[in-house]
């Protein structure tokens, strides 16, 4: 469902994207080409800053936002999800936040007030709060990263996880095409 926010902004969704009918996309949201938005996802850009304005939530091309993901932002701060990225089931992305290209955010993970570098893989049940991650880092399952976390303890992404991330993007790109085809048949 696409809907207006209280300030009157409507989502802008590419004709080549697929948004599941159970998803809620509200307000100043931009969804680019070939994006997959799964069932029960909520992407809501509706809070304003002290000046009464807000930055958009942008989901860049070829990205997938899976089932039950919530993307929101405090006080109108920007949220950007980069190209070919995957936000897995029931994750929360809360702005201010940037997830750069080719990143993978695992199941039930929470990302807040951070920049996630290109090619990062954050595994399931992780929290990244208030500390930016450099490119190509791997965050093991159930890791909590805060402002005082030692990034030297995080290794580069092992090749098998990079390959997994690429396969998820490819699978969801195929889903965009399939679901769009089905929607056109109804």
Automatic annotation (TrEMBL):
Keyword match Lyase: yes
N-terminal signal peptide: none
Presence of the UniProt keyword Lyase in the record: yes
Pfam families in the record: Hexapep (PF00132)
Broad enzyme group: lyase
Keywords (A to Z) from UniProt: Lyase
SUPFAM superfamilies reported in the protein's UniProt record: Trimeric LpxA-like enzymes
GO molecular function: carbonate dehydratase activity
EC number: 4.2.1.1
Protein name: Carbonic anhydrase gamma class
Species annotation: Vibrio maritimus
């Amino acid at each position: 469902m696409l809907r207006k926010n209280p300030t009157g902004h409507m989502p802008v969704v590419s004709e080549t994207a697929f948004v599941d009918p159970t998803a809620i996309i509200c307000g100043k949201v931009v969804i680019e080409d070939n994006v997959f938005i799964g069932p029960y996802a909520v992407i809501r850009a509706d809070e304003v800053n002290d000046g009464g304005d807000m930055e958009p939530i942008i989901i860049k091309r070829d990205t997938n936002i899976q089932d039950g993901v919530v993307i929101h932002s405090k006080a109108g701060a920007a949220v950007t999800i980069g190209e070919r990225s995957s936000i897995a089931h029931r994750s929360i992305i809360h702005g201010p936040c940037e997830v750069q290209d080719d990143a993978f955010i695992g199941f039930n993970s929470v990302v807040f007030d951070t920049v996630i570098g290109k090619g990062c893989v954050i595994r399931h049940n992780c929290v990244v709060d208030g500390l930016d991650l450099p490119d190509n880092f791997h965050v093991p399952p159930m890791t909590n990263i805060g402002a005082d976390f030692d990034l030297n303890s995080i290794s580069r992404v092992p090749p098998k996880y990079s390959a997994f991330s690429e396969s998820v993007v490819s699978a969801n790109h195929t889903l965009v095409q399939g679901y769009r085809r089905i929607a056109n048949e109804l």
